[in-house]
Amino acid sequence: MENIKKSKETITSQALSGSIWNTLAALIQRIGGLVFTIIIARLLFPEGFGLYNLVISVGHIFFMLSQVGIDRALIFYFSNSIKKKSDKKARDYFAYTFKLKIIILLILAFLLMITIYPMSIFIFHKPAMIIPLFMATIYMFFLSLDQFLASFFFCIKNVKYVALKELVFQSSKIILSVIFLVFIIKNPTPAQAFLILLLSSFLAILFSMYNINKKYPKIFSFSNKLDKNEKARVVKFASYLTLTSISIVLIGNIDTIALGIILDNTKYIGIYQAAFVLMSSISGLLGFGQVLLPIFVELKTKRLEEVFNKAFRYSMILSFPTAFGLSVLGGYFLVLIYGYEYVEGALPLYFLSLFIFLAAQVGLLIELFSSREKSKDYFPLLIFVIVLDVVLNFVLVKYLSYYSEVWAITGAAIATTFSWFIYCIGMTILARKKLNVRLDSKLIIKPLLASIIMVVVVYLIKVYLGDINLWKGVILVLSGILVYFISLILIKGLNKADYYIAKLIYNRIKSVITAIRQRTI
To answer: How many whole angstroms separate alpha carbon 372 and alpha carbon 296?
Structure first.
């Protein structure tokens, strides 16, 4: 019994330590990304910002074959080798996956380069896309490589380097954008924004490579001794996860592509993306999946369901009030952050706010299947969701565009959110059938009830306060947080174990702050 108790504490401690550093990395990423987005959204205005996001979406779809799959394969096989105390095998897996990543990135970059002109002219009918898309191709190459290198730190459960890498990337792109786009260049363009991103991602890659080489000298040798079966296993594992990443990339970008093809004015793409970025910046702070993958790998089947439901419960406790709060106050956030030019994004944001808890649940389920090398089990669902998302986006955007551009971008929000809803339900059913892991749906009830109470109270306070300014907005947010947690306590949505977890989190945060201070002294 004592060994089991120590094992539980060790797993909890590892998860908390990783989650805190991962949350810090996500916080830096989301805040930095949001600050950069605000800068270029205000400088480029909705038209230029819309073109910028259309180019980003095209780049993401082209590079989707390099996303997630190989990165997760590195985490899985490197972690397994370390667990078996086979340092040499771990190096071999890193060398093989790294070489595979570079080859795929070069092929994808070449394919995108040769299709830039015909795609810009004949598909989107927007010649202004050509130069930004060329710059975006190089940026996407660096960004994908940067994400792969960051995965190494998840392998060795040293997530603090991910946070530090994000600090380098986000701070450099903000500093460079302020220096060049604000002070030096009078009328910045989307292409110049991509140049800033390109330089910043290159600095982040140098940071990661330096620290990886410190941990494992000569790891970038490209020499490996994996046999054919081991290589085939890696490719098979990565292939199915790559198909998963395709769904995420498509669901995250097909809305923008549909808007780019159907709408002539890129202004409304910019307005839609302002709402989407606000939602995704908040949603990204609630993801635990990547941190939990190495832990899921180590767990036996009996404990897997217990740990999964624990992660699911905390995910819902955080994501439900966030989604409900954003649906009520999202319009004010858009005006405050981006300016009045983006106020029309409030309507699609109401629907996009639901995306937050759906994405949190799907993220956990994907990592659950990955930990058991069962990614292929949800392939048919994946194909169905992709087709559904494409059809819904083009149908709703086209149909609602006859009424107005605002309703067209709202149609994109409805299609995207509904597709994730179907994805979420399907993955939950498959987890029970294929992995014998049952998601405890009762864990949703209390966070949902507390969130409804919070929304009612916040709405009444909003009516009482009248016109909302910055300080009234702060009062509303703080009041919502307070009401939510008081409601959760009163309906017994929190227990003694949660206070123990809160204490662990507090101690971990203290240790993280101490580590940061020692590093900066």
So the answer is: 8
pLDDT level of residue 4 (50, 70, 90 thresholds): very low
| Stated pTM of the model | 0.78
Structure tokens at 470: 């910055």
Alpha-carbon dihedral angle through residues 361, 367, 369, 374, given to the nearest 10 degrees: 150
- Cβ within 8 Å of residue 412, ≥6 positions away: 255, 256, 258, 259, 272, 348, 393, 396, 397
Residues 493 and 447: beta-carbon distance below 8 Å: yes
Are 274 and 50 in contact by the 8 Å Cβ rule? The answer is no
Q: What's the rounded Cα separation, in Å, for the pair 352 and 474?
A: 22
- Burial class for 477, CB neighbours closer than 10 Å (0-12, 13-18, 19+): middle
Residue 337, CA atoms < 13 Å, CB-side half-sphere: 24
DSSP letter for each residue of 109-147: HHHHHHHHHHIIIIIS--GGGHHHHHHHHHHHHHHHHHH
- Structure tokens that stand for 154 in this block: 């998840």
* Average pLDDT rounded to a whole number, residues 236-259: 76
Q: Judge contact between 181 and 105, C-beta under 8 A.
A: no
442: buried, middle or exposed (CB in 10 Å: 19+, 13-18, 0-12)? exposed
- Angle in degrees, CA 32, 36, 42, rounded to 5: 145
85-134: pLDDT as tens digits: 666 777 888 888 888 888 888 988 999 999 999 999 999 999 999 999 99
Report the C-alpha gap between 196 and 174 in whole angstroms: 9
Q: Rounded to an integer, what is the distance from CA 475 to the centroid of its chain?
A: 28
Determine the number of helices (DSSP H) and then strands (DSSP E) in the chain: 17, 0
Q: Is 217 left (phi over 0), alpha (psi -120 to 50) or beta?
A: beta
Nearest CA to 177 among 164, 163, 196, 194? Answer: 196
Q: What is the pLDDT of residues 369-378, one digit of tens each?
A: 877 767 778 8
| CA neighbor of 137 nearest in space, from 104, 119, 112 | 112
Given a contact cutoff of 8 angstroms between Cβ atoms, the answer to whether 174 and 31 are in contact is: no
- Nearest Cα to Cα of residue 68 among 300, 382, 408: 382
Name the DSSP letter for residue 467.
Answer: S
Q: Please name the residue that has the structure tokens 């149609």.
A: 411
User: Closest Cα partner for 307 from 328, 288, 335?
Assistant: 288
Q: How many CB atoms neighbour CB 383 within 10 A?
A: 13
How far is the C-alpha of 380 from the C-alpha of 518, rounded, in Å? 50
